[in-house]
Amino acid sequence: MAAVTAVTAAPQQPPRLFRHRKSLIFGGIVLAWLVLWVVLRDTWTLSLGAADLTPLHRWINDVNDAVGASRNSNPVFLYFFNEIRLVIDEFVTFVQALIAQPSFGRPVPVIGWLGVVAIAGFVSLAVAGWRIALLAVAGFVFLGLQGLWQESMDTLSLTLAAVVISLLVGIPLGIWAGLSDRANRVLTPVLDFMQTMPTFVYLAPLTLFFLIGPASATIATLIYAAPPAIRITAHAIRSVPRTTVEASESLGATRNQTLVKVLLPSARKTIVLGVNQTIMAALAMVTIAALIDAPGLGKTVVKALQTLDVGTAFNAGLAIVVLAIVLDRVTTAAASERRTLPRWALFGGAGVTAVCVYLSYTYLWAAEFQSDVEIGSSINKGATAVTEWAQDSLPVLTGGFKDFVTFALINPLQVLLAESPWFLVALVITVLSFMIGGVRSAIVSAVCVALLIATGLWQDSMITLASTLVATVLVMALGIVVGVWMGRSRRADRVIRPVLDAAQVMPAFVYLVPFLALFSASRFTAIIAAVVFAAPVAIKIIADGIRAVSPATVEASTALGSSSWQTIVKVQLPMARGALTLAANQGLIYVLSMVVVGGLVGAGALGYDVVAGFSQGQLYGKGLAAGLAIVVLGVMLDRLTQAAAKRWTN
Amino acid sequence: MARHSVLGTVSAGLVALVVLAGCGGAKVGDTSSGATGDCGTFNLAINPWVGYEANAAVLAYVAEKELKCKVTKKELKEEVAWQGFGTGEVDAVVENWGHDDLRKKYIDEQKTAVSAGSTGVKGQIGWYVPPWLAKEHPDILDWNNLNKYADKFKTSESGDKGQLLDGDPSFVTNDEALVKNLNLNFKVVYGGSETALIQAFRQAEKDKKWVIGYFYSPQWLLNEVKLEKVKLPPYAAGCDADAEKIACDYPDYDLDKIVSKKFADANGPAAQLVKNFKWTNEDQNTVAKYIAEDKMKPEDAAKKWADANADKVKAWLPKA
Question: Using the beta-carbon criterion (under 8 Å), do A363 and B110 form an inter-chain contact?
């Protein structure tokens, strides 16, 4: 988030204190907190039982019921939501008819597998070159060999539809936010909200507004996937050098001319990266959207998990990973350089593609993927075997690690945060915020604390906060170790990067089953799930940061006789501190986005509140309040890490 | 020159491809699908557990095979499915566990849903322990003895108390009140999903670990691990009226079917089928086992059961 929300909090002049004096103050605060905690433990903790509600929660329930009851008479539904739903439904159904579902009275889609593979190959060739085109073709054929062709195409249809709509809405908004500071200030919190509000909270109401079907699934995906497009477009427009724009203006160009001729072309590469991020975010929603009947791979995963069938779930998860890697590499390559293919290749490619599409329209063998070489069941068996082995032989080792982290890190922190009186924690948070980022940060934190209390879920918020902080520490530890290794060795980078990509898009549901076997239902399991999801981002950012340290500096250090260790600690890490703080910020946000998944494996607290709110009508209001609390925690931690980053890197 | 030869190769390849394809391959549309009868479309919600899937699979199979309906299965959580009665997108929910709140909202208040009678399956909710534990310490099956063993159930999550593993979030739980009102030295820990519960019980049986938790029957896991129910103070009508004072067991559930008002009023063949549908716990367990353990597709599992139980199926069909 920090990468692009550069505008928060105007630069604060850090209070000029001596370093050791500052540590003294910090130590004093913690000591005072500990003493007061001993005295006041378990009083004024604002705890709320799992089945208990506050008036706010009941009020939200009533509003929800009232909306549901009025849906057939309310003009907003009849003339606004229905129209949106119709348009989106038509669009998605059309894409599905093209590549995924039997349509137009035919038993198969318009374009069969051969046609889709050819189109994927040709488009990749045109925008990204030969190697990527080969990758795309191989990837798509692999989907067919997995025995998941139709499911994959359903997922692809939904993803493409959501991405297209995200871009149609997102790029103009992004340009607007890039040009106007005021628009940016209004949009940023809205985008924060869209990205950190757990999907479970709005999934059920969405089906009330947009009915069950592709439209709701697309909109759910859209809410999560559009923000990156908007943020990155705005960022791209903003980072075009002032001088370029001034030059254009001094030559008498109008605003529109400057935008179209100068700003957009210079920002093109960055905007394509936004497209990339939007695609990845859309794919991350595949399994969750399946809970409201979204067609595709997500359904396969969700269904397999009802019987704890890890093999089948893994096979489908792998298909999502393959789709993600292909789409990622194509868009990244398209962003990095502009290629011009020789004309013969372009025409030849177009010709071959046209023929393949025709064949796949006409002949069954090219329409339906049928193959004697079926690898889906082998993947399935392999994954099952590995899982069983891990479940049988590893718990001895993993149990000890779990107990260590639980007793040494999670429990003390949680006890301190959740069993102190609320006003004590609130005071500590505000004072620490002041020390980190001055008055402004203190005010933001104080407001956030007040909002947490208003949700009625203060104690649950503190329990979740404790786990979030522990998870972030683990993410950073892993990020620094692996990131430095990748940053220093190209070979390590090449091997590890695809694994990181896979960890980011493999649906969490797939690896939760073995994790539950290894660590039981516990807060630690939830933390590990969050680390798996968040560490790749931190690792990548740190690796890129280490690599960006100028080679000359590193060589100078080596020439002066520093060991590798000294070079890393004294030169590379300090010089990459911008990347380190960014990694910490992103790590936190990603960890928070896994809070709900954590609720499914024993984290309790806010995550469980959201999950239960999705499943039980009378808990809906509480679930929504818990979702809000997660957003508030996210905003507070994001602003704090940004403030800390600003003063550390200055 | 080079360019020409490449183009030539490409086009020659294309011709070859077309010829090849033309020679060997069935054309799309050569085989047409069967026509549908007067049943029309039947929108069947699929709630996410295997027992439900078993009911739905058999109903869908019969509706398609015998009544020539076009069955559209919609995979939804209960809340969303009930909401679908009002929006006209769901016709039937075919295994409902109580859900008094939803009944009140959709049957009594919004009047978009009606009950379509029992499925014949009896549901139970309660506290369960793995079979090895019940065998070695038979007295654990009485709640009065639970405190004696509380220490053994301690985990990293429960502090100095025993852990009572809860939390399939889909079900109402009174467990916090129960623990408090029965003065048990236990702490309720929210596992958060059915997966977490199943995995815990499976491992408990395999490694002889101490686990006690909230579970329910019928459930496919019980075919594999025969969990034993712990006796709580018996349920009596009204003993669960005040949520905070509950000190009795969960009631037995008569699992029933809920259909949309419109669907029931139209009373088409599919609606009559749903109304007539009734079987037993054993029937459901059989089909659930086909799906969960034998990894059969729901359609195939339904066919296997229906072929073996033709008389039962016949009794459900609308009387023409």
Answer: no
